[in-house]
Design brief:
The N and C termini lie far apart (48 Å). The chain has helices at 25-33, 46-50, 54-57, 78-90, 105-108, 120-133, 153-163, 186-192, 210-220, 236-247, 256-274, 276-282, 284-290, 298-304, 310-322, and strands at residues 2-4, 7-9, 14-16, 38-40, 44-45, 69-74, 95-100, 138-143, 167-171, 201-204, 224-227. 44% of the residues lie in helices and 14% in strands.
Length: 326
């Protein structure tokens, strides 16, 4: 049985990755409905939190139905990270997660996210300070290393474990790769099978369906898997993976009726959470995957991607439902 702090998992856990501008409360709730066991907030700037910046503090919000959930923070200054972790703890999550893996230039230029992969000692020092500052379990998400010549995840994982974290998620790419190329799970497996490691190791990278999910689970022995880009507009991936784990059988993909129903619910939740203007615009990134593979869909998609009117969006959903675009 896998355990992170006080959180115990009876079944093999499937995690929802923290994705900036994607895994907001409306989408997290849908992923939970379809079987995501654990999720994290979008990553939150420690500097923004301690300055009470609205863009950062709003990301602390979650509902009871999303549990177990972790609040993910990032930064490079030990004092700021300690203070931010305490603020996050007050929001009442189940764990605090530290992002040592974000490859975005504006983050790493400040030494945060994957930028800390260049300084394993400082990474461990800040992590230990956060662990000591809060009573909740602390977890970390990171990468294999800075680049092809500096894959130091074995050293990093041991240092972070020694710093007191309760689980580590490893994305199978270096910072230099960003999201290009194929994720390398061999080092994730080596970390998991390192006799010095005793905390759960969660694997992340290129899990885009049930078959590869089970293959990576069996091949590398990781304690859980994390789904990232493959779930964007396709929350059914959690249901499909968990069904395959239980039965060895593949579920058929959702039909048009279910796709429209779930997308509409997501849309309505986004409007309720963010208001009409922002909610309509921010849903646009999901439509391609919600309706992927539908023939003759392009004209409808174009309208969905350009309209700013709630009623028109619902009309377009009705058109998809009626199959009139086929």
């Amino acid at each position: 049985m896998m355990q992170i702090g006080h959180i115990k998992f009876v079944d093999y856990p499937v995690f929802l990755a923290p994705l900036e501008d994607i895994t907001d409360p409306p989408f997290r709730k849908i992923c939970k409905k379809f079987g995501a066991d654990v999720m994290y907030t979008e990553f939150i700037s420690s500097e923004g939190l301690i300055r009470n910046a609205g863009k950062s503090t709003v990301k602390l919000e979650f509902s009871a139905e999303e549990r177990p959930i972790g609040i993910q923070i990032f930064g490079h200054n030990v004092d700021s990270m300690i203070r931010a972790a305490r603020i996050a703890e007050e929001a009442g999550p189940d764990m605090i997660d530290i992002n040592w893996g974000c490859p975005v230039k504006k983050v790493i230029n400040k030494g945060a996210g994957a930028g800390m992969l260049k300084d394993a000692d400082k990474m461990a020092m800040i992590t230990e300070a956060v662990v000591k500052a809060v009573s909740l379990p602390v977890t970390v998400k990171t990468r294999l290393g800075w680049d092809e010549n500096n894959k130091n995840i074995m050293e990093i994982a041991e240092k972070l474990q020694d710093a007191g974290i309760k689980a580590i998620t490893i994305h199978g790419r270096t910072r230099a790769q960003l999201y290009r190329g194929k994720a390398d799970w061999t080092l994730i497996g080596k970390v998991k099978n390192n006799p010095r490691m005793f905390i759960p190791v969660i694997g992340n990278g290129d899990i885009d369906g049930p078959v590869i999910a089970l293959e990576q689970k069996k091949r590398y022995g990781v304690d859980g898997i994390m789904i990232g880009r493959a779930c964007i507009g396709y929350p059914w991936i959690f249901r499909e993976i968990k069904h395959y784990f239980r039965t060895g059988k593949l579920l058929p993909p959702p039909g048009i009726d279910e796709r429209v129903e779930v997308c509409r619910a997501h849309f309505e939740s986004s409007i309720a959470c963010k208001g009409e203007k922002r909610g309509v615009v921010e849903m646009r990134k999901f439509y391609s995957n919600y309706f992927k593979g539908l023939s003759h869909f392009k004209p409808v998609k174009l309208k969905l991607m350009t309209t700013k009117d709630i009623r028109e969006v619902h009309t377009l959903f009705d058109i998809i439902l009626s199959r009139k675009f086929l």
